Amino acid sequence: MKIDRKRLLRLLRQFRKTKVLVIGDVILDQFIWGDVSRISPEAPVPVVLVERESCMPGGAANVASCISALEGQALLIGVVGKDSWASKLKEKLKRKGITKGLVVDSSRRTSLKTRIVARHQQVVRVDNEIVAQINKKITEKVIAEIKRNAHAVKAIVIEDYGKGMISPYLIKEIIAIARKKKIIVTVDPKEEHFYYYRGVHCITPNQHEAEKATGIKIVDKKTLTSAGKNLLKKLNARAVLLTRGEHGMCLFQKGKKAEEIPTRAQEVFDVSGAGDTVIGTFTLALAGGASYEEAAHISNYAAGIVVGKVGVGSCSQKELTSQIERDRSK
């Protein structure tokens, strides 16, 4: 399909009028930045001399941040502990204009991912979290929060990082609310939970997740098509947007030919957060009136910008507009 880039630019201008509700596992991403000049005498590991530290919203909170960076209006619902990490996460979200929707579960701790980065290379990641399923009482609080906010949004993103928030019961309730209010539902899936998502509008798996879910090893166009069609049928979804790293994306829709979209990345420094960017941008575009094809192309541009940044980055509307305009002028 030939894409009208002039129309893509018009769709970007709709973002600031569009509200999207993000539901899922929220994480605080911590980065420790430093330099390496020697190996430890205690073990064959690098010694990192710390230069600075930073924190940013991660998981579903990063998807909301991506939407906010694109000048969309993001609402966020997730579960945090009653701890300093939750306070830090709320502070970071408040600065981005994302101020409500976090449900406190005092029996859990807020998920924290610490990445140690030296000379632009990630040395190690440390995960500090509880991944047990949230209890029924907290789930009901989450559902109540969804019902309070659903009237204001055009789309819902389910961001499943497998940290315990997303369950079949919660998905069923979200789909019921969305159908009643005619709201688009998209999912960034966790491979172990693929068949929780039956009945959503679209999922955005990466190639590894699609292979695990279907049992089909993707090695050529034939196996790629088989995997995509398999997911469409089993999930009864309207579309599947399969992301393939340096090979770009492939969009599958019911009754349509699969569309392969080449990557827009010029250089790849870090793929952290690329999936969050894809689902956030794709859903925001759909909510703003884009077709599945147009939304896929817009999210492909955004992902190409993000992987060119070190750390979990985001794409601004200005960057996205500039990139599409450059391609249009060619």
Polypeptide structure, described:
Helices cover 37% and strands 26% of the residues. The longest helix is centred in the C-terminal third of the chain and has 15 residues, at 221-235. It has a domain at 5-24 and 134-329: 3-Layer(aba) Sandwich (UDP-N-acetylmuramoyl-L-alanine:D-glutamate ligase), CATH 3.40.1190. The protein has helices spanning 5-12, 60-69, 84-95, 136-149, 168-181, 207-214, 221-235, 274-287, 292-306, 317-329, and strands at 19-24, 26-39, 46-59, 73-80, 102-104, 111-118, 121-128, 155-159, 184-188, 202-203, 239-243, 249-253, 259-261. By secondary structure, the protein is α/β, with parallel strands linked by helices. The chain contains ten helices and 13 strands.
Provide a concise account of the structure shown.
The protein is of the alpha/beta class.
Give the helices and strands, then pairings:
Elements: H1 5-12, E1 19-24, E2 26-39, E3 46-59, H2 60-69, E4 73-80, H3 84-95, E5 102-104, E6 111-118, E7 121-128, H4 136-149, E8 155-159, H5 168-181, E9 184-188, E10 202-203, H6 207-214, H7 221-235, E11 239-243, E12 249-253, E13 259-261, H8 274-287, H9 292-306, H10 317-329
Parallel strand pairs: 1-4, 1-8, 2-6, 4-5, 8-9, 9-10, 10-11
Antiparallel strand pairs: 2-3, 6-7, 11-12, 12-13
Helix pairs in contact: 1-10, 2-8, 4-5, 6-7, 8-9, 9-10
* Oligomer kind: single chain
Summarize model confidence as the mean pLDDT.
91
- What order do the helices and strands follow? HEEEHEHEEEHEHEEHHEEEHHH
CATH architecture of the domain at 5-24 and 134-329: 3-Layer(aba) Sandwich
| Biggest beta-sheet profile | 9 strands, mixed
Radius of gyration of CA atoms, rounded to a whole number: 20 Å
Number of strands: 13
Q: What name does the CATH topology of the domain at 5-24 and 134-329 carry? A: UDP-N-acetylmuramoyl-L-alanine:D-glutamate ligase
How far apart lie the N and C ends? 18 Å
State the strand order across the main sheet.
Answer: 5-4-1-8-9-10-11-12-13
Label the overall shape. globular
Total count of helical runs of at least 4 residues:
10
Q: What is the CATH superfamily classification of the domain at 5-24 and 134-329?
A: Ribokinase
CATH class of the domain at 5-24 and 134-329: Alpha Beta
Residue fraction in strands = 25-35%
Q: Which blocks of ≥5 consecutive residues have pLDDT under 50? A: none
